[in-house]
Specification:
265 residues, alpha+beta, Jelly Rolls, 2 domains, seven-stranded antiparallel sheet, 35% strand, globular
Length: 265
Amino acid sequence: MKKILLPTLAICSLLAAAQSRAQVITDWTFENNAVGSGTATAIGMANSYGTPNPSTNAPDVLASAGSSTGAGNEWRIRGQGTTALPANGWSSLAPIGTQGAQFNASTLGYTGIQLSFDVEMTGQAEANLEVLYSTDGISWNNAVISSVAAAGATIKNNTTSANTVMGSYISLVPSKFNNGITVDLSGIAGVNNDPNFGIELVNASTGIDDTNGAGTAYNNNSGNWRFDNVAITGVAAAPEPSTLALAGLGLTALFGFRRMRNRKA
């Protein structure tokens, strides 16, 4: 019996271990090989701020060779004029956290949620980016940015200026991909097993704090952000003890059947 139980327990242990590793829930690569399902939406580009003119959402996908994958496509967030007059969508008049992109993906069956993404800012784009998360698609909360692989990009924490988000944000490096930005949401219970989970990558500043890559005032008529490899990962929920027990019984029965057949042979 011990010879049968040992491999059974080993297989059950492997099943449990496999469940404990982080898995990709959804990964927006903007290629044809995206993993999982979800929605990606440009937000705040349809507006009437008049900087310089009213605009509508006009995101598009561009060929890129600068993200952490080394090749492929990137998703450009920008607006365009609603008439023949020029408009770019981005505006220093936009309130904090209202312009950028929103990504929604169900985390049902997963815990230990993590986010990672790459973003390129053009030289005249807004430099400050914050990450928001939601558990209901209605209320949004500032997330703490964990790390960034890009040299020069700086994680900051604002506690004083009313023109920048109170809390964590990142100052991006212009004219290059800011790769490997990560956000650890594993300590937030509400994002686990959540069909309404979403994140927003949006402007962290407004008004006089809304600067470009050179640290000067955003010009309100050019510049954009470009995203790639926006990935949400999590740990699949471990099987119930009863499920493992049933698996063990089934394997035990299988080994027992083989043992009996070998004796008869």
